[in-house]
Amino acid sequence: MPDIVHRIEVAAPLEAVERLVSTRAGFRAWWAEDVQVKSDGTVELGFFDRTTVCRLRPAGAEPGRLAAWTCQTGQEWSGTRIVFEMAAQGRTTVVRFTHGDWQKATDFFTSCNTTWGELLFRLKAAAEGKGRGPLFLASTLAY
What we know:
Elements: E1 4-10, H1 14-20, H2 24-30, E2 34-37, E3 43-47, E4 52-62, E5 66-71, E6 81-89, E7 92-100, H3 107-127
Antiparallel strand pairs: 1-7, 2-3, 3-4, 4-5, 5-6, 6-7
């Protein structure tokens, strides 16, 4: 099974990065403007006026090290895992990102790889106080 893998260094404390990858306010700062959290901890991100909804179920958290999610929706995303591994390294935080367990490397997989690259630079900017806002606005792409 193919995986999307990225690594980025963020000039911010690990705690700041961790909040961005594990909370509603965090996701809204860099990923999607339309974020809802359900009582069971499931997160829903709405894209393109909610014509597409990405539902993420918490799949593991280790404070100060890991935030993991299982995708519950999407023709190709369903059953995949999104994992943010974080480690403090001096004054920076190293983020190792994996969107794994894809069934195969399709054109959509390749497109998502490109999008994740942009999203991780937005995550970095948000953590460093230079945020440009979420990539996905409530009704359209931000760029």
